[in-house]
Amino acid sequence: MLRANAPLLARMRNGWVPTRDRRRVLARTGWKIARVMAALGALVMALILFDATILAPFALVMLGLSLLFFGSLVKGDPVSEGDRRAAAEWKVYEQARDHQGKYVLLDRFDDASIRLMRRAQIAVDSVMTSTVNEEGLLDDARNAVMLPAQEWEIARLLSKLSGLRVEHKELVAGEITPEVKAVAEPLSRALDSSEAAVIARVEALENYAAHVAEAERAYRAQHQIEQLRAKLPRYEELLAESGAEDYIEPEIARLSDDADRLEQALRRSVLSAHDAFRYLEK
After folding, report:
1. What is the CA radius of gyration of the chain?
2. Taking the model in full, what pTM does it have?
3. Per-residue pLDDT for 173 more than 80?
4. What's the angle, vertex CA 244, arms to CA 240 and CA 248, rounded to 5?
5. Which among 83, 89, 93 has a CA at the least distance from the CA of 13?
6. What pLDDT, in 10s, does the model give residues 184-210?
7. How many Cβ atoms sit within 10 Å of the Cβ of residue 49?
């Protein structure tokens, strides 16, 4: 919900609060309660009147009324587009308030931070959507926990870095005295060091994603080779019928060798990916 409503979150951060007509909400709730009571009353009256044969027609009328009230409750009240939008905005507002401090908005990131954040997100997405991760060849459970945590930590640090960097540029803009310059230079180096540390985190993610991509290529190639090997009997049958069975023997041997090499490459690439993942935990 928060990801899909970033513009609303930006407005809320600036002090905007969605309107909520409490009188209308209370009136709608009261009307629903009244219909529930009316439906239950009509149903009870119908059951009482059914005991008296002469009043059976009235019982049917009361039963029909109870069904009508219950049907209106199931169908619900017609809601205007404005009411629907206001209700949706209020839900977003409540979620944003409950999760305050657990999300950041990219509109406050400077260009360098946005580029780093995108790189981190691309790396995480490529790992999480890979076949080798979905098939459990990697530690998919740890990936599901560690990678979002890494993404969040990078986003949190970049949010702070962007804010401080903007403030720093504003403070040292224009002509400054030597005294101010002497104080500002160490702070500039601190910002540069912080950015370098975040870049190292992003590069570690990208390194892991690259190893996973290599494992992905080996896995797909191995799968394709296995599919070809499964079709060999049909090729052998065709060659035997055509009198060219001698042709297939070196090809079969080469195909088996390719499958073995791909299996070894897959194992090596998965081990390399695990090593790269351990580096993320440092």
Report:
1. 33
2. 0.65
3. no
4. 85
5. 93
6. 888 888 999 999 999 999 998 998 888
7. 19
